[in-house]
Amino acid sequence: KAGVTQTPRYLIKTRGQQVTLSCSPISGHRSVSWYQQTPGQGLQFLFEYFSETQRNKGNFPGRFSGRQFSNSRSEMNVSTLELGDSALYLCASSLHGQGASYNSPLHFGNGTRLTVT
Amino acid sequence: AQTVTQSQPEMSVQEAETVTLSCTYDTSESDYYLFWYKQPPSRQMILVIRQEAYKQQNATENRFSVNFQKAAKSFSLKISDSQLGDAAMYFCAYQKAAGNKLTFGGGTRVLVKP
User: Fold this and answer.
1) Residue of B45, B51, B92 to mutate, interface with A, max A Cβ within 10 Å
2) With an 8 Å Cβ cutoff, are A98 and B98 in contact?
3) A34, A38, A42, A43: CA torsion to nearest 10
4) Least CB-packed of A15, A79, A101, B98 within 10 Å?
5) Which residues is B13 bridged to in the sheet?
6) B108-113 and B10-14: which strand pairing?
7) pLDDT tens for each residue of chain A, 117 residues long
């Protein structure tokens, strides 16, 4: 079974631009979560989608948004990029939603390394 | 809000020896899960071991075991018979029973000396 696939692996953008990152979960997984990893702030939760609905959101500005499609694939968009948005963005999928998290731990992708210049 | 603290930025261990990583957390919840994830240079977060808060028995996965002290809110990871492939960043993470949001600690880098 294929793992969580994130594309692209590397991305270089300029301040003020926008970017879209893609995540394909493990087949059959319906929950997709996004995390930002930086040396200074560590790993921070961005948001979670389940069955095309955003179920949980972290403490990030509105420039960060996401969506999930009917096939569970998810995209994350960052508008008006800032230098501080440079980070590794990790996507994770799990089989179930609430209440069954033990039986369906999060499986992570290899991440997208975004550099903003 | 829940917080997770890893007080050791880096730990070094000789191959075949044992190393213990510390993790403490703060929560007012009674039902939750705790995890240790490993992140090698490939960047992928790999689940090492997990523990349900309602279980008193400490989880074990091959050479990896935890010491879960619920009252002390402590969750340490022991790596026995360390191997070169164990070298990585290790993150302790907390998850409420409902939902899939993980709160991570700052990480501990493990170096394995041959």
Assistant:
1) B45
2) yes
3) 10
4) A15
5) B112
6) parallel
7) 789 999 999 999 999 999 999 999 999 999 999 999 999 999 999 999 998 999 889 999 999 999 999 999 999 999 999 999 999 999 999 887 654 454 578 899 999 999 999
